[in-house]
Amino acid sequence: MYYFYILQCADNKRYYGYTNNLKRRLAEHRVGKNISTKRRRPLKVVYYETCDSKDAAVAREKQFKQGRTRRSTIDKLINEFPPERLAEFQ
Fold it and tell me: Where are the extended beta strands (E) located within the chain?
């Protein structure tokens, strides 16, 4: 199983990524092991979804990074995401 995830950064920008281990990856982001987010900490996971394969997770990440997903759609996904599902990652 893979995950597509969205982080809210301290500079109010969002980071989109994928991984096969969400807890480990978030820990790496939080300690500065990722160049793209190192200077944008603190970070908060605001959305994630599971994908059946790496290819599916990569495709989902590309949809967001390349701007094919509208900002209003992204905001809606984040706002409607159940907070209790995020609790274990905060």
Answer: 2-9, 14-19, 43-51
